[in-house]
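Q: What would this complex look like in 3D?
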Amino acid sequence: MAVSFIVGVALGYASLLSGVWYLMMLSGVLVGLILSARWLYQFLALLAAGAVANLVYISPLLGDGLLKLMYDVGLIAGINGDILLLLMIVLSAVMSGAGGLVGSSIREIARARLRQ
Amino acid sequence: MASGRGVYIRLGAGLAVVVIIVLIGIFTPLVTLLNPATGVAQNAVDLPVVNRQVSVNGLTNAVTIIQDVNGVYHIYASNDHDLFFALGYIQAENRLFQMEVFALTGLGNVSSMLGSSYDSYDRFWTTIGAPLTAIKDWERVLANASVNPTDNLTVTALEAYSEGVNAYIAYAEAHNTLPIEFKLLGFKPFNWTPVDSFAVQEVESTLEFGDDGLIFALLYHVLGNETYALIPTFSPIQNYYYAGYNGPPNPYVLAMSHHTYPVNSTLAYMAYRVAEEWDPLRLSMLNYFLNPTTHSNEWVVSGSRTNTGYPILVGGPVLSFSLPAIWFQVQLVDPTYDVYGVVLPGAPVVVIGFNKYISWTLTDTQAISDGTYFWDQAVRNGEYLWDGEWHPIIQYHINGFTVNWTNLGPILYQNGTNALVVTWMGNAYSNDIGALLNVMKAKNWEEFRSALEIWKAPYQNFAFEDNTTIADISPACYPIFNSTSGLPYNPSSIMPGDGQEYIGGCIPYNMVPQVVNPPQGFIVSSNQRQVGPAYPYWFGNTMTPSPGFRAFMEVNYLETHPTVSVQDMMILQSNNYTDYEAALTLPYIIKDLSNNTNPLVKQALSELKSWNYEMNTNSTAASIWFYTYMYLFNDTFTPYLYAKGVLPAYENVINPSGMGGSFPGTTGLSSMDVDLAHIIMTGNPSPFSNETLSELLSEAVVQAMHYLTSSYPNGNYTWGHFYGFYFPSLLGVPALSVGPLPRGGDYNTPNDASGGGPPSNWPSGGQSWTMIVPAANISDSYGVYPGGQSENPASPFYSNYVYIWIRGGYLPLYFIPSPTLFPKALVKATVILTPG
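A: Here is my prediction, written as structure tokens for the whole assembly.
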């Protein structure tokens, strides 16, 4: 589980660097495919990994005024800025976790087929 | 090991979540907006104000940009190209969204960004000709550049500016820092071109767009010749005309002004339909210039009347407020230029400011300020009639609209074979940008005046000072109307468009209003009529934009203060709340009501008698004056308008209240404020009311006191409860707006705007830039505008100036000739742009 978490954070951060947010899903898929673990623990680890990767990525922006900015964006968009920020983190977590579910499921199915 | 079925369920669940997220990303902006790497979060990178170096393709040499502690940008370049390039870059960095909104406004295409609710807005701009003129102006400048130095300079400046803006767009796209508004709207900024700068010029030219001619026509349709009593050609009160020509009215001009083309029902219907749809008040949503209740202040005092022996210039253009503000402060330095002032979003020229030698400012002209003329023209089967012959109508298809032009201009409305056509001076070729590029480097009055000779619209008064000269000039193409059948018809109304009346040219430049070093030692041109009744050219009437009391107050102050200082000018401009109309008329009111026994009247008089005419926030007398005046206005004119049939028939477009329409949901007609003052001073309300002035005054005071005492039973009806200013955000988000904040003043004070009463009716317009420049030491200049340099609401420079402006404060304007001389303590950050 810890390994899944650490690798998930690293791959998730790398995905964010690419600018293509959807790659967070791919990072989860990769972890799920490659690392063997109980699916529930791995899912939870990747959820956390996605959230942490996101937080690490935006942490420099916190000092730049990110909270104030999201607050103002929220005013324009009609949604609370803190909720927007939370939504961002949750989406990263869900992408990573969902990818992990897909990856671990494919791994299990493939192993089962190979045994047959 | 998980069951076979279980693993497929988990696979399905995972894939479902993936698909849902992708669909959310496709059908909503959420994923794009919240992407940590490319979404709005990345805009936080631009918030810290720090030293940086940016490599930019297109520059020829490095440019140093110093942002001072007040947020002003000082740009130091080695050539004109790099100077304007850097201006484009830094202005885009701070105001790109505003710039694109502005340009789209002038291009008649705001709906492409903000949605179909702006279709009517776009139709207006397209129909009056703004996008066409922007294109044509640029094409003409480009075609002439090889033979005309001003046009050549314009091309250099605009192309470099466009490159700079586009360089910023490319940088921001690459670094995911485009303004948040673009991300929220899902709108990709367009690359800037010189046509966009001319579109911005067109937006500015709507200072010269109004429907006065239509309103006058509607009034004439109902009132006939009584219209001239309601809207006199010359004010019965004004006696200061900065450019002279006092004396009896020119008989030809007066006759022309009273020779109005008959307005039949068909014409009245067309006029009403157009005015109803395109009344400037309805269209002012995104336009800082189109609000018809905006006015401006300027005066200049010669060295013979200052404490330093050198002139002082004071400028206070009144425009609509918004956040971001209309203005952007810069200093521009290269071997050609060393100029400080404010620029518009999208036009690379200092509109109001100063250089080492001169300073200047602008105000709207009175009388002929509405450079919009209307015609009744016959049309049939795609042709219009002119001089007895039929000619083809030219059709343009722009922005999805079809616009038909005759020789006189665009057709605004067609009813059978009648067309209402407009000649808008904003469509006249005018390289204002080029004129200002030359003004920015002028060294004396002769060069300044010469630079403005090509300025055709909008109609502006330009006040000027250098070390030895004060002057004012109102350059423009003021049409001369001729007629083949004798006396021309009144251009203040609709004219016949069959060829009998035509524009024969413009008032010659040496005859436009102007004055140099007048003997009284000062010049005031704060929207009052510039030339007196003896002026030999038709020059409009008293309809808009100002009855002149504010200007008279400023004249009165300067006449009674033989020596003034910069501090005196600050107080006069921003902290003197004397309502001159009150000073002029209240003595008559008090005298008239002196024997009135009504307790409310006596209570009101007890306060008014000791009042100093200052509209201060802590004054109850100010509130009594305001409401008395407003009710008096309504009681005098509203029954008259109903009796004559103007109301309720035309109340959607003619619904006046006093002080330029200061009651909610009303409009202003400056003539009527002049009329009311004259009524008070003469004691004769005829022909507008059958009541005596005493009766009207008594009723008005009682109404005012009823309103005030019922609103504030404890007697605390101080003016600060009824007047102040609101600073709305450009997108209309209340939480990103500032105010309403109370402040003294009213329609007749230098810090002027119409409005008042409940905070929802407080003005969102006023002196948009207050600048004071002492020629003795230009580096000791002061100024502030109510806004901030940045359009990013999270920036510390978004609205920081508002709180200085609202208390009548000023900031020093640092005028530093080179980056090496810039005091370190005044530097907030330095940006070095290097060639890529």
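A: To summarize the key features: The two ends of chain B are 59 Å apart (CA to CA). The CA atoms of residues 53 and 832 of chain B lie 5 Å apart.
Q: Very helpful, thank you.
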